[in-house]
Amino acid sequence: MTKCVAIIGGGVIGGGWLARFLLNGWDVKVYDPDPEAERKIDEVLVNARHALPMLYDHALPPEGQLQFCSSVQEAVQGASWIQESVPERLEIKHAVFAEIQAHCRADAVIGSSTSGFKPSELQEGAARPEQIMVTHPFNPVYLLPLIELVPSAATSRTHVEIAKETLTSLGLFPLHVRKEIDAHIADRFLEAVWREGLWLIKDGIATTEEIDNAIRYGFGLRWAQMGLFETYRIAGGEAGMAHFIAQFGPCLSWPWTKLMDVPELTDELTELIAAQSDAQSGDKSIRELERLRDNNLIAMLRALKQQGSAAGALINAHETKLRAPHTDGVPMQTVNRSIPVDWTDYNGHMNEGRYGQIFSDAADAFMIEIGADSDYIAGGNSFFTVETTIKYLNETLAGQQVKVLTKVLMSDGKKVKLFHEMKDEADHILASCEQFMLHVNLTTRKSCPPLAHVQTRMDALALAHSD
Amino acid sequence: MTKCVAIIGGGVIGGGWLARFLLNGWDVKVYDPDPEAERKIDEVLVNARHALPMLYDHALPPEGQLQFCSSVQEAVQGASWIQESVPERLEIKHAVFAEIQAHCRADAVIGSSTSGFKPSELQEGAARPEQIMVTHPFNPVYLLPLIELVPSAATSRTHVEIAKETLTSLGLFPLHVRKEIDAHIADRFLEAVWREGLWLIKDGIATTEEIDNAIRYGFGLRWAQMGLFETYRIAGGEAGMAHFIAQFGPCLSWPWTKLMDVPELTDELTELIAAQSDAQSGDKSIRELERLRDNNLIAMLRALKQQGSAAGALINAHETKLRAPHTDGVPMQTVNRSIPVDWTDYNGHMNEGRYGQIFSDAADAFMIEIGADSDYIAGGNSFFTVETTIKYLNETLAGQQVKVLTKVLMSDGKKVKLFHEMKDEADHILASCEQFMLHVNLTTRKSCPPLAHVQTRMDALALAHSD
What we know:
The structure is a homodimer. Helices cover 43% and strands 19% of the residues of chain A. Chain A is an alpha/beta fold. Chain A has 3 domains: 4-176, Rossmann fold (3-Layer(aba) Sandwich); 186-283, Orthogonal Bundle (N-(1-d-carboxylethyl)-l-norvaline Dehydrogenase, domain 2); 325-464, Thiol Ester Dehydrase, Chain A. In chain A, the strands form 2 sheets. The first copy, chain A, has an 8-stranded mixed beta sheet, sandwiched between helices. In chain A, strands 9, 10, 11, 12, 13 and 14 form a 6-stranded antiparallel beta sheet that branches. In chain A, helix 1 (12-23) packs across helix 2, helix 9 (229-236) crosses helix 10 and helix 12 crosses helix 13 (311-322). The model of chain A has no long low-confidence stretch (mean pLDDT 90). Chains A and B meet through helix 7, helix 8, helix 9, helix 10 and helix 11 of A and helix 7, helix 8, helix 9, helix 10 and helix 11 of B.
């Protein structure tokens, strides 16, 4: 059954939520009184459709249906998730929750995107406080996995469990914040850094660009994959965290920070920051900056995915749920994916080498299908590629959707020949590959026939594909 | 002439500096009275030799000579750069500077790795304050490009310029801090975040692992490529930074932070943090964590390199200085590089597709050599690969050094056939590739003969390679 979400408030954050759900196959009903809402959501969707599928080496499910509604009532009816992303004023949120709860299902999760309010504050005066919680995302919501999930004591355990399952199924990471506090966890750090940054600018120590460089060429790279404490654990060496604290703890009382005070946001300071930011990035539009940010995030997330580490491990876990069973069609479909930005050359065309990777992926999928899977390899048997011949027939671009169809050309004991064709959505052939493989005993490193169950399946496919 | 650096203090930071210089071809003389220094430096070097070459698509220059010295005097003699990384106590640093200056060249740069002291403090009582400055690196120094370069008013402009040039030539990014303050720029942020983290743990809001997840699944990814202000510029939308500040500025005075106080580092709090850190990462040794961190950083940095963005743009700029001129040997050497960790499968072997990429890179290098370079392509002409046949002869592992030798098999007007062999350092053949290319007019998209100067060079090579 298709799942249905109601998006209440469709700005950058609401639009990001909408895209996450829609691109994961949910039907989406959205309500936002802003007459510009449809245009704004469309802009977010353009970015999200470009970006999110590139995180995965398999196609996402077909998009759900998107429906614009003229009232909260219309949007929330039948929805199993309601995501509120209206302005950060408590009285507005209370009014919206009252309207939501007058019409929504009692078993639905109502998540709030608030970055500051505690769930107990949101629940004040609510008809059913048990279904309300904070689910605070990070921009761009269609790429960053973190969701701070903050229930209050009045939130039901059942709703929290459903929320965690749903968020995980969307490729998100629910960070269960066990004690509610203002601004949850992440924004407390952002606040601290923002404040320190304002002082450095006000005091003329550094410009916005110098501060950004101090972050992105140094600790930003560390934090993107390990965060703060694991990084410092390494700095402490074999002696461990207690040693690190003993060594660096005393610095804390040194006068290294001005955080005790809040700089006054005078017009002068605001203009100074705006002017520095213009000098730093003013040559690019916000759309261009968004695309630059998204492409960088995709490339970094895919790098972590390939390492199986940090946020990349989350993507790998989500991807295992995306794999549709391989059909026994003739020929067999072995790849179905989009071309990510990290696979292209400076001119936007897919790099020659990535054709080889796609066909190698196709062979991997084929082998799993016929029983030569990871258990088979762990048992000491595998197919090694000896030779490939690739014909490049048409250019392939980032964002393009491609599939690979695979046939067995020859199955002769230890010798196997596969033939792959890569096609676009209109079934135009982009490239083909003939791949000659040998079955190998991994212990003796010598070629030998496959085990019987694999051989049988291979022979059957060779026959089926013998047209 | 080989350049010579003196490393005074060879811990994790000094060792990281040492590796940066050594792997960029500098001779290194190191002094550290710790009897364990040689072992510790060797451990850093093992990591650095694994990691740094992987950032580039060309080999680094041959390593310089490494010499362990028994005195500061011996180490600094003749050195054009002296890097001080001794413990963070001002009286120790003053004593070390006095000994350095008694024996070093007056035109040498003396850089201090201090994370807290101002250069004017370091210069107190110095014989030649003009050659002393802060050059504060970030761990791991062999991978992260940021160096905070902080001169005082007494530091000479000439020495600062030399320092900037030298750091850039090592692939580092000198962030010139124009006004000296305690802790420079980056550590002020680290301090703020560390302090906030301690409070969250002390108050039982979050564990070390939850805090790390809040960072690495969210804003850490943003900061690794854009930093703070450019990220917020996007959040402000087309209305710009001033709008963003107007919208989010007021939050600053809300009670979202406890930064006004410093938590007391009681034994209890220290033990709590250490225990949480053990629970989070205790299953891995520090060596394993270092390798994990380095592999993640390599993969992310290479992802940014491919995008030509953020720290990746720095690597690309440095790489252009690494390319040795292509020799006219027979056959021609077209690739010389190490295999990075992001090119391997889960089993540590180079992915099939990357063979294709290496041979594609070899063809690119070959084309530049014969005059079919970016100007030629901009002029509307290019070679397109039509078909490649790759023979996989031996497995290739991450960290392996490989080269590709390229011959012209056929030059027949618009038709060209290249033959590439990839070899390891012992000249064993790992793979070969026959590549059939067509010369194409990019406007008409039809094949046509190359322009005369390219055709002449191609024919000459076909003859030279015709054995």
